What we know:
With 316 residues, the chain is mainly α. Helix content is 72%, strand content 1%.
Amino acid sequence: MSTAITESIRANSKSTPRRWDEWKRGIPIYLMILPGFLYFIVFKYIPMGGIIIAFQNYDPFEGFLQSQWIGFDNFIRLFKDPDFWGIFRNTLVISALNLFFFFPVPIILSLLLNEVRIRWYKKWAQTLLYVPHFLSWVVIVSMTVLLFSSQDGGINILLSTWGYERVELMTDPSYFRMLYLFQVVWKEAGWSAIIFLAALASVDPTLYEAARVDGASRWRQIWHINLPALRATIIILFILRLGHVMDSGFEHILLLQNSLNIDISEVFDTYVFRVGINQGEFSYTTAVGLFKGLVGLVLVYLANKASRKIGEEGVY
């Protein structure tokens, strides 16, 4: 018995230096993870404590602990608000545009870029597609205003000079969603394609060789090799995007918004800014934000469960 104990002590004493050496080898990786870890702790998890004010009549002078507790009154007020269903509809429509029109574009773009065989052309095309991502929405919307302003926009001046009618792109509500979608695609499609290109780069080249030997065309190779290789990535990103279905892009929509198109451009993000920041309704707009988060959570849970049922890994 004493011999077994002695051997276990020796084994533990030998494994301790080994674990220390392994930990030291991992220090560079831990340092790389640290900024992201701190970001989520400081800006995502710690602020979650502020959710409590959704159930209070929050007064900044009294603080979290002394403010009056009102339960679910803020949520009742939200659902009884005559503007609620209009804002809810606008948010869902814009999210649907992102899901069903923008989301497939990076996939198609990555498949097209993957088929380009001229390396210098492929690099230049990728660079040109990535550049818009680094422009702010302020710059993009300002460019649009300069080109399509009703009175002094460059495009409208040309149309007027050539005898055509002016295009009221910034003031006609019927153009708002089309303009929003076009700008999102132009700015983010190239950048969003990076992750799909990375997934395609991991495909075994021998699969293409075997397909060519069997007489498969380029289209058949895309259909039977590339798309199956992207399937897991597509499902995971789609599930994650469902979690943001109530987030429509605050800055972008706020810059495009004006008094003429506010009926179809007002979404939860801009509503929270207008009511919460401008009018000081902190408790009420916190309840709005909590409602948005709960909708996203339910959608992610259901989508993940559905992906598990069809045999995919899902997010968790």
